[in-house]
Specification:
The complex is a heterodimer of chains A (126) and B (110).
Chain A (H helix, E strand, L loop, with lengths): L2 E5 L3 E2 L5 E8 L9 E7 L5 E7 L5 E3 L7 E6 L4 E6 L8 E13 L2 E9 L3 E5 L2
Parallel strand pairs in A: 2-11
Antiparallel strand pairs in A: 1-3, 3-8, 4-5, 4-9, 5-6, 7-8, 9-10, 9-11
Chain B lengths: L3 E4 L2 E4 L5 E11 L4 E6 L6 E5 L3 E2 L7 E14 L9 E9 L2 E5 L3 E5 L1
Parallel strand pairs in B: 2-10
Antiparallel strand pairs in B: 1-3, 3-7, 4-5, 4-8, 5-6, 8-9, 8-10
Classes of the chains: A mainly beta (126), B mainly beta (110).
Chain lengths: 126, 110
């Protein structure tokens, strides 16, 4: 059973870079069947998709955050990572990593986030 | 960009009742690209429904997804204690790839 686990500093100073890593266990990130996503949730708020990566390194980002965001993959460690530059208090949130799966049925192809990490809280404060 | 609007914001029901949650898209979307999640307090979201009506692995048949075009519904029959949580609908846009979520419906015990 695939499991995802986020790791990284819980506290980041304003204007610095936030770096998080998601470790995948119970399956290979290189299987080619999935994309790997980052999602965040501001305190008491809804979900915001940040972007995803394929094991080849191909990425897609939320256009509203693209200028500050980099997602990378390390297949040798079965990990993918997020870097968020020039953070402010508005980036304080719970950050989740998730597996992005494709589902096939008679009506066509569907996409959804079917395995999630437990999340890691990041606070931006001096 | 597709905007998803969920209603009601809060739904108060007793255990054993039926819950009906709505998700409306700002324009017509493919049913294949609509999913539902449940998020219990202090936990990560869990996928319930994909393709508007297909239950994810391990999801009991009291969860029923339906809808098409701009209007989608998640129905939960016979509410169990673990069902009281926040529910999100989600749309996947394929070009360019992008996930967007509704603002959530808080299902609380009455």
């Amino acid at each position: 059973q695939v499991q995802l686990q986020e790791s990284g500093p819980g506290l980041v100073k304003p204007s610095q870079t936030l770096s998080l890593t998601c470790t995948v266990s119970g399956g290979s990130i290189s299987s080619g069947r999935y994309h790997w996503s980052w999602i965040r949730q501001h305190p008491g708020k809804g979900l915001e998709w940040l972007g995803y990566i394929y094991y080849t390194g191909n990425t897609y980002y939320n256009p509203s955050l693209k200028s500050r965001l980099t997602i990378s993959v390390d297949t040798s460690k079965n990990q993918f990572s997020l870097k968020f530059t020039s953070v402010t208090a508005a980036d304080t949130a719970m950050y989740y990593c998730a597996r992005d799966s494709v589902f096939y049925s008679g009506s066509g192809t569907s996409f959804a986030l079917d395995v999630w990490g437990q999340g890691t809280t990041v606070t931006v404060s001096s | 960009e597709i905007v998803l609007t969920q209603s009601p914001g809060t739904l108060s029901l007793p255990p054993g009742e039926r819950a009906t949650l709505s998700c409306r898209a700002s324009q017509s979307i493919s049913s294949n690209y609509l999913a539902w999640y449940r998020q219990r307090p202090g936990q990560a979201p869990r996928l319930l429904i994909y393709g508007a009506s297909s239950r994810a692995t391990g999801i009991p048949d009291r969860f029923f997804g339906s809808g098409s075009g701009t209007d989608f519904t998640l129905t939960i029959s016979r509410l169990e204690p673990e069902d009281f949580a926040v529910y999100y609908c989600q749309h996947y846009d394929s070009s360019p790839p992008m996930y967007t979520f509704g603002q959530g419906t808080n299902l609380e015990i009455k």
